[in-house]
Amino acid sequence: MAKATTFLIFITMQYKENYGAHAWEGEGECPQYWKFKGGSDYVSRSLTLEEVQDGGIEEFAQSVIDSISYKDDHSEEYCIDWELRTEEEHKAALSDLKKEYGKDYTCFTPKSASDRADQLEKWEEERKAS
C-alpha cells in the first residue's frame, strides 16, 4: 500500500528591530527607527489529506502564525507569506537550498512564542558545531 500523502504549512516570517528604542528610557513615546533584520521560516506539524480536504487550513495557518508573531516597542516578527506543501515538496525545497548555499537550511517548528528563544539557541549551537 502506498504511503499516504502528508502536508505541512511553510511560514515565512519577517523580523525587524526598532533602533530608536535602544536609548529610550521608557518615558513618552518610543522613537521609531525600524530596521529589517531578516526573518525565520517555520513548518507546522504534519497534516493528513483529510485535514486538508476538510477545510480550515487558513484558520489553522493563522493560529500557528498568531502563536509565533509578536510586536513590542523594541522589535516585531510577522508573517510575510505562507503556503501549503506536501512533505515531499518541502524536502525537495530544502535540498535545493542546501545545494545553493552549501549548508543545511533550518526551519523552526512553532510550539509557542515563548519556545522561540530556546529554538534559536539550539539552532545556533547546531550551526556552531557544523
The amount of beta strand, in percent, is: 25-35%
Main sheet properties: 5 strands, antiparallel
How many individual domains?
1
Report the average pLDDT across residues.
Answer: 81
Q: Which structural class do you get from the secondary structure elements?
A: alpha+beta
Shape: flat
Task: Write a concise synopsis of the structure shown.
It is built from 4 helices and 5 strands. It is 35% helix and 30% strand.
Please explain how this structure is put together.
By secondary structure, the protein is α+β, with helices and mostly antiparallel strands. The protein has one domain. 35% of the residues lie in helices and 30% in strands. The protein contains four helices and five strands, in the order E-E-E-H-H-E-E-H-H. Strand 4 (70-71) and strand 5 form a beta hairpin. The chain is flat, with a radius of gyration of 18 Å. The mean pLDDT is 81.
